[in-house]
Amino acid sequence: MSFERTLLGEDQQTKDELSDIQTGARGIGVLNALIGIIGFAGPAVKGNDDRGLINMKPGLFLGLVAVNAGHNLLHIMFGVLGVQASRNAESSYQYMGFCTAFFGLFSAAVWKEVKFDRDIHIIGGVAMNWWANLGHILLSAFSFLTVIQSDSQ
């Protein structure tokens, strides 16, 4: 058995290197998981009535972004899916395409009710406001740009 490493050309990757789309999927996955976990931090959520360490109720994270348990759990789920999808390029591509569509369409649907309102709106069990919607628009845009960039290579 040989443990030599084969030299590859500049356009080839070793088995342990991630492609750009895989790196993007992993990054979006980790970011989503962190957003979901941090949203449960009770002391950082304005409107956390019981003043506990874990926030389950609708409130404003850092006084800006609408969060609740449903919103946080969705971000954690998207995070786990992203990290899992980043294991291969095809799954990463599908995950980033799904993030583009889901966050983009969800933001468009939420816009109809929320617009620039900073108050908390519960839409489909998810706490939303202008800042949360802006975050979802940015997630959709980054996912879309990562897919386009990977297609051009």
From TrEMBL:
<keyword id="KW-0472">Membrane</keyword>
<feature type="transmembrane region" description="Helical">
    <location>
        <begin position="28"/>
        <end position="47"/>
    </location>
</feature>
<dbReference type="Pfam" id="PF14325">
    <property type="entry name" value="DUF4383"/>
</dbReference>
<protein>
    <submittedName>
        <fullName>DUF4383 domain-containing protein</fullName>
    </submittedName>
</protein>
<feature type="transmembrane region" description="Helical">
    <location>
        <begin position="93"/>
        <end position="111"/>
    </location>
</feature>
<keyword id="KW-0812">Transmembrane</keyword>
<feature type="transmembrane region" description="Helical">
    <location>
        <begin position="59"/>
        <end position="81"/>
    </location>
</feature>
<feature type="transmembrane region" description="Helical">
    <location>
        <begin position="123"/>
        <end position="148"/>
    </location>
</feature>
<keyword id="KW-1133">Transmembrane helix</keyword>
